[in-house]
Amino acid sequence: MRKLILLIVAGLAVGALFGHLMMSVPGYWLIRVGDTSVQTSFWFGLVLLLAAFLVLHFILRLLSGMIRPVGRFRTWNSRARNRRAMKRTVRGLVAMTEGRWKRAEKTLVKAADDSSTPLVNYLSAALAAHYQGNYTQSQEHINQAQLTTEGADTAIGLMQAQLLIDRQQPEEALAILNRLDKQLSNHPQVLKLLKQVFLSVNDWEGLRRLIPRLAAQKLISQQEREELEFKAYRELIIFEAKNPSDIERVRSLWADMPDYLRGKTELIVLYAEALLQANEDTIAERLLNHSLDHHWDARLVKRYGLLNVDPSRQLVKAEKWLQERPNDPELLLACGRLSLRTGKWTKAQEYFEASQRQRPSGVVCAELARLYASLGEHNKSQLYYRHSVEMLAKSLPSLPQPSDASDSQPSSKKAAKRA
């Protein structure tokens, strides 16, 4: 109501102002053509001029619409087709979500030509064809996507790589991802897929170099980083150790290894084995000495007891550790073996027997049996050999034996006779 009153008041004010102008600003229009002349007031002529302009404008627009009807129809038709294509695209994507791959592919491809986003249509259709197992058709859709949309190389490449990984073709995927990685340094999705492919093809060197980039982009947690680094360095050391003549490669890996990994027992043992295979026994001894001083582990003690660098010096070091760990069965076994290397038979016997008392072991029994046999004490030797075999037998799986079969044989023979 207030708006209506304001409009009426405004209209009256404008009318009054216009009337005042008509009274205060007199004038006239005089149009003369030959002997004919037309005269009217200034304000009435102004109104006629304005009306003529509006009529002329309307006529020109009408003529323009009549001259270009085909173009207008095409524009309208294009918009209508685009709207229909968008509806079809949505139906195709819904079918994709519901797992109706064949229907999704057909709908998306049919709508692609009229769609404003043909890239989405063809890539989604490629995914639907892939899920149906139609890999050739899937690749054709990807090729069509490249033709319809410029500047989409990254999206298309990532789609291709992901589909190739799903098809168990990691080598082909790796070629695409390496190309994308050169073009787009540290692209998150490219790095994720590279990690997946490196693990698939056991490319441990590639994974080792990729891990810092993954961590810098915060694409892996600290725990996952440590697990991947451990696995990569372990596999690389195992592989490089197969060629003892190229021990420098193993040394380089050990030098590049993060500090926390040098305390991992499994890696220390692998590195020590590689050094021993390359006749680097002295370096292996220093490595084990240093590791055991800072990180005690039974596996390292066992390996130390099998070294043959300087048995006398090694035995002194082992007996020093024994003062701190007098009841360590693995250390007692190592001391016994080092005593054998130095020719101290009685001391070796004492260490072996002490180890056996702390933790009965088939290995220790075998060592004692061999030692007693060499000393001529065959009764004791046979006793420990028997203990060794018995302890080994306890670790074997439970399987049928000939005695079990012979027990069941009479009953089977009886059954055959009855038949």
From TrEMBL:
The lineage of its organism: Bacteria, Pseudomonadati, Pseudomonadota, Gammaproteobacteria, Oceanospirillales. This is Tetratricopeptide repeat protein. It is found in: Cell inner membrane. Residues 396-419 are annotated as: Disordered. It is a multi-pass membrane protein. Residues 396-413 have a biased composition (Low complexity). Its main location: membrane. Pathway: Porphyrin-containing compound metabolism; protoheme biosynthesis. It comes from the Bacteria. Involved in a late step of protoheme IX synthesis. The chain crosses the membrane at residues 42-63. SUPFAM superfamilies: TPR-like. Keywords: Cell inner membrane, Cell membrane, Membrane, Porphyrin biosynthesis, Transmembrane, Transmembrane helix. Residues 27-133 form the HemY N-terminal domain.
